[in-house]
Structures
1.
Amino acid sequence: MKLKAGIIGLGGFSKIILKSLERSRIVEVVAAADIRQEMRLEADETFNISNIYDRAEDIFSDSSIQIVIIATPPFLHAQLGKKAMEAGKHVFFEKPGSITLEQMQELKQLSQKKGVVATVDFVMRRNPLYLILKNLFTTQVFGLPERVFLENYAHDDTLPADHWFWDPDKSGGIWVEHGVHFIDLVQWLIGQPSTVQAIKINRDRYNLIDRVAGTAVHNSTLVSYYHGFTKPEVFEKTNFYAVFERAYVQLNGWIPIEMEIDALMTSDMGKYLTDDLLKEARRYLCSIDTVLEMRQLKKFGE
Ligand SMILES: NC(=O)c1ccc[n+]([C@@H]2O[C@H](COP(=O)([O-])OP(=O)(O)OC[C@H]3O[C@@H](n4cnc5c(N)ncnc54)[C@H](O)[C@@H]3O)[C@@H](O)[C@H]2O)c1
């Protein structure tokens, strides 16, 4: 029998969650809640959900529900998550888990106290190409990581000036609402930073921050991030780079589907690339396509 879930918040991202869970053999969504009637009606027409409520409380009080999925704006995550755990439910938080560190710590303690599982939807960790990149960090096959950087030119087509996204009290700001994906990714790849610096830039003539940049040092790896909400959707661009002692690695796309590794190889490394790494990659991406190009190093005197 499948685990029964209830989702709170039926806005833009809930559709992605609901669509992907339609194919799940483990979880079925049996209930949903949204304070807006048009969202409830739309979900009712699109998905097969038995009960759609106007109050999250109806999900907490339904004893048949084991998992609560929280997909509301971020400032509500902590309070809804707390109530769900108090009712003995496991919680799947849309990112960010909450908008302050104190709230996150409180949620973590509560999940331990109540013996429920609570997790945050950090999608990057499940991307096959980032799993391959993780392998390069773990094996250090191309040496130590020297530098990591992210360039993220995001769109604001669906973000009018009064959208909750621009209000740091509701979203947590760009770092917490959006950058958290890559902060989590980098910490998963190389651990916690020892120093962090960041700056923000206001949009001309508007009281809203649309660009942030930051630098962090993790062990001896220098990491920098840039997020700008300045582009139309068709012109978005995201690139994530990792530079090792003997390799440049580039992943292209918000959800990357392309990875380029330019590396200094020794003759015994061919087996690692063609057997170990690609074999692992095919576990996640059975139709992965690879192109290998070799360049010989010139030696002095030749
Ligand atoms: N994992 C990802 O890649 C990813 C991508 C996009 C968004 N998100 C996250 O998903 C969450 C939702 O984002 P969105 O873009 O769908 O927002 P949205 O504004 O489109 O939808 C939020 C919905 O929550 C409803 N809501 C508000 N208060 C409520 C309450 N008290 N009870 C029930 N429903 C309530 C609103 O009516 C709205 O329909 C955010 O935390 C966002 O960061 C995650």
2.
Amino acid sequence: MGKESIYKQYEPAVTPQSKAFGKVYWFAFCANDMLVKVENGSYSIPYMNDLREMNISPVRAQYLGLLKGCPCYSAEIASQDNIPLGMEFIPLRALFDLIDMDLFLLAGKAFQIILWDQSHQFCGRCGTPTQELPGERAKSCPKCGLITYPQICPAVITAVFRGDKILLAHAKAFKGNLHSLISGFLEPGETLEECVQREIMEEVGIRVKNIKYFGSQPWPYPNSLMAGFTAEYESGEITVDGTEIEKAGWFSPGNLPELPSQVSISRQIIDWYIQKGL
Ligand SMILES: [Zn+2]
């Protein structure tokens, strides 16, 4: 994986150490869009004492910790109306390549925390308003004691190789002739490796062996963690399920279809395969 971990520069925390902050980074979202400052065609995260300086009152905000010593907050904004000049709301995914990579990754974290905070205001078991658990990114129910943590849904994504060829599939949901790796969500009680085998069997009817971990990537659209794998073809012929996957095939590095964006681990695995020249 080419990307450096943001944790070299970032110290997560739930509670600010001091109230006497100067400027802070504001990762402010309205639905799926993040508030960014646009200046001469370049994009940046609002960096100021308080969003109220722009007459924006967040519905709720969460402390995220320090990035290079600067405090960071996520905030939920109710409406995109009355945004000051020079500020824009842009879908999070579209900001890949437009802002600094550390800030982009932290924005993904901010987004997931906002969604979790927003959807866990009440206990999922008894409906009582929840309370923040001090010092932890968690909420507890004062009535029944249920504790909830930010929800993260693991999914696997696998590059299957047969000789020098790679298995790529076109899902019904994909645009144009875009092809990607086979992926799917983990089921309760399943190991990641079992999930790899099951998803590939279900979607394209192929049996695989020699499953190896490649790397992982948070995928905040809205709350997944993608675990990337490679595997070798063992047996079977491609039979697409027809519901999720429309077509699939074995491709050589010199003859690839339209590939997913650089933002995804899928593309990172495919690029690794191309560079390594199997
Ligand atoms: Zn409860």
